[in-house]
Amino acid sequence: MTPPSTLFTAPPGWHWLIACYFFVGGLAGGCYFLAALIDFVGEPEDRVLARLGYYVALPAIVLGGLLLVVDLQRPERFWHMLLQSQTWRPMLKSWSPMSVGSWALPAFGFFALLGFVAALAEGGALCRPALIALRPPHPLGCVVAVVGGLLGFYVSGYTGVLLAVTNRPIWSDTPLLGPLFVVSAASVSAALLVLLAGRSEAPPPGVAALERFDGWVVALELLLLIALAGSLGGLLRFWVDRWGLALLGVVILGMLLPLALRRRPARGRGATVAPVLVLVAGFLLRVVIVFSSERL
Fold first, then answer.
1. Does the reported pTM lie above 0.85?
2. What total number of domains does the chain contain?
3. In a domain, 213, yes or no
């Protein structure tokens, strides 16, 4: 039984570009947040792991912004989300997640750029030693990391809130999309950092802690997904189709199997299986959420 069309607005027309943005935007915010966290609480040997997070955050948020612009019917008018077309004054609607998110993206992009160049300078790829001050423990670096980390946290989860405030079935019928997107962003970001760090001959000691962290986050993500399914009530039947099968794959291959694999130590190629599964499942989760409502 299809819900009466009078109860819902027309689908916004979000397809693959938006699903990809949800994924890379979550990676950008999550990787920066984890990099800043490692800078504050990690061992000195783990700074190389934090650098990986900064290296990922900037290109990921740039790619995410490009995906959003290309998805517009009139891409050349993307700046209308930031400025009034007649007065050229900044336009920020504090009650609108889309408006606040439009400002959060370039703001986060600026801090991602600072973290990126500081990581390059510390790694020796940029001959500007003074730029290292943009990373903790320097006071200026602490400010940059805290503000950038908070913006990254927002960017990783505001898309779920944006979906929840629409008048679309499934999206508007649960308050858990925002928390689910935040937790999923943390999971895929930790998995990517583990995957990248594992390619080195001598992985930093923080990789093991990051793997344990990812295991806990994946477990929390599974609980949130179960709670989200329960909160949908009768609408859950709309997931009992091809998207329901995809969601089942997310749970089995992207959550349960990685949790099982991490209970036993693995080396070489075996150590890459769990993070790869988490990354694939994180992308597929966003595809399921976007398309399962779009088709109604």
1. yes
2. 1
3. yes
